[in-house]
Design brief:
heterodimer, A: mainly alpha, 23 helices, about 0% strand, globular, B: about 130 residues, mainly alpha, 6 helices, about 5% strand
Amino acid sequence: MTGSWWPVAAIIAVILATATVGTLGVRSRTTSDFLVASRSVSPLLNASAIGGEYLSAASFLGIAGLVLTYGVDMLWFPVGYTVGYLVLLVLVAAPLRRSGAYTLPDFAEMRFGSLRLRMLSSVLVVLIGWLYLLPQLQGAGITLRVLTGAPQWVGAVVVAVVVSVTVAAGGMRSITVVQAFQYWLKLAAIALPAVLLVGAWYRDGAPVFADGDWGTPLSGYGGRAYPLYSTYSIVLATFLGTMGLPHVLVRFYTNPDGGAARRTTLAVLGLLSVFYLFPPVFGALGRIYTPELAGTSAADTVVLLLPGRVFGGWVGQALSSLVAAGAFAAFLSTASGLSLSVAGVLTQDVLRRGSRFGGVANRFRLSTVIAVAVPVVLALVAGRTDLAQTVTLAFAVAASTFCPLLVLGIWWPRLTVRGAIASLVVGGGSALVAVVAVLAFGPFDGLTQALLAQPAAWTVPLAFISAIVASLATRDRDPRIALSALTRLHSPEELETRR
Amino acid sequence: MTTPVPDGAPRREVITHRRTAAARSNSQRRGVRRDVTEQTELGVTLMRSLRRAQLRLALVVGIVIAVVVGGIPLLFLAFPAVRDARVSGLSLGWVVLGVLVFPLICVTGWLYVRAADREENEFVDLVERS
C-alpha cells in the first residue's frame, strides 16, 4: 500500500490511451469489420497485437507470484505459453486461415457441416472465454487494492467498463492497434524494472536465497504433491491448449493468406520469447527482497511491490507506476480480445439475424455487454486462486476440446461429426468437472488436488481417444464435406487467385 | 525474356516478366489446377500428397519438441547430478527453462516455416507446370 497517486495516474493514462486509440477505428460497420478488421492487418502489426493480446494477467503478474512461492518448476508456465504457439504454428496456423471462417464455430461448421457441432462449439467458446476473463478481472482488482487500498471489486468493474466501451465502439480494427501498442508497453514495463532490479541486486553483493529445494526442479517445494505429474499436466495443457483459446484463433483470420499466417506466428514466437525472460526475475528477486509474500494470497502482487521495495524515492515511484501501467495494459488487452471473441460468437449464434435485437452493430454491442458482465459477477463471488493457476484451467479445457477438434479435423479425413461431438463432450465435460470442483470446493488433498487442479494429463488423452474411437465406429452421411474441407484447408492460395 | 512471335503478327520484341508469361499461357494450362479445385480423382490424390507431406513435416517438428523440451523433466528425474548442476551459481533448471529453451523454440519455428513454404511452392509449381 504505497498510498501514492503516481501509479494511479499511470493507470489512468493507459486507460485514456487505450480509449483514444480504440475510438480511432470507430467507423467499423460490417460484420467483417467488427470481427476481423476486414482481413487487412500487416504481419508485424498483427504479431504485436497477438503478443499484446496473449500476455495476460497470468503472464504479467501470475508467473512471478508462482515462481516466488513454488520455485523453478513454475518456469514451465512461460515455456508452455510459448511452445503452445509453436505447436499452433506447426499444426493449425495456415490451414485455419485458409478455412475462411471467422470463429471456432464457423470452423466446426465448415469442416463438418453440422449445426449441432456448431452450437456445441459456441457454448465451449463462451465458457472458455469466461473462465479466462475471470483472472483478468481478479488481477485488476488486486492491483488497484494494492496500489490504492480500494476494495477489490473496483478494479474489476473499471476494466469491464473500459473493455465494453472500446470493443463495442470499434470492434477488431481498433482493437488491433490498441493491442499492438499494449505489447510494447508491457515489454517496457517489465523489462526496464527487471534490468534495474538485477543491477541493484548485484550492487547488494548478489545475495542468494538459501533454501536449496526452491531452486531444484521436481522438488515439490511449497507443498505441491506429485510434482512430476503436475509438471507434465502443465506441459500438456499449455502446449496443446493455446490453439483452442477463442481470442487466439480469431487473430488468424486477419492475415491475408496462409503463408502470412505462418510468418505472423513466427514473429509472435520471437516477441513472446523476449517478454518471458523477465517475469521470473521478479519471482526470484522477490525471494530475497519480499520473502513475506511467498505462499500468501498476495504472492501475485510481487511484480507491483518489488520495485518500490528495492528502490526508494522517485526511482521507486516511477518504476512502480510503470509496472502498474503494464499490468493494466495486460488486463485490458487480454480482456478486450476475449470479450471480442465471446461477443462475436454470441452475435452469430445466440442473438441471430432477424431477431428482435436489431442490426449487426446493435447485436454486437449487446453481446459485448453480456460477454463482460457474466465474468464480472463471477469475479465478485468467486474465491481467490492464483492467477496463473486459473488461467491454466482455461488452457486445460481448451486442450481437452478444441485441440482434438482442430488437429484431427485438419489432418484426418476420417474424423466424423459424431467423433468430434464425442471428444467435445467427453474431454470438455471431464475438464469442466475438474474446474468447477477446484474453483467451488477446492483445495483438496494430495492426489485428488493434483488430478483436479491440473486435469490436462488425463482429460486430453481421453478427448483424443473418444474422437478416434467414435470416428472409427461411425460414418458421416456425406463424406464429401470432409474431403472438400480438407482440400480447402491445405490448398495454397496461389492456386485459387491465379486462376 | 522474349516470347515467340505468332505467325502473321507484325514482328516486334515483347519483353515480359516470367510470371506474366505464365499467366498468359494459363488458358491452356488450367487442366490440373481445375482437377485440384474441383476435386476430381487426380486432384484429390494430388492434394492428399501435399497434405501428407505437410503432416510429416509437422510431426517431425512435434516429435522433436516433445522429446527435447518434454524430455527435460524426465532428464532431471533420471539424473540428479544434472538436476543439481550449477552454472555460475544458478541451478541448471533456471538456465535451461528460463533462458536457453526460448532461442530453441524460435529457431525450430523458423526452420519449420521455411520448409513448409518450400513444400507449398513446389506443389504450386508442379500444378502450374503440368
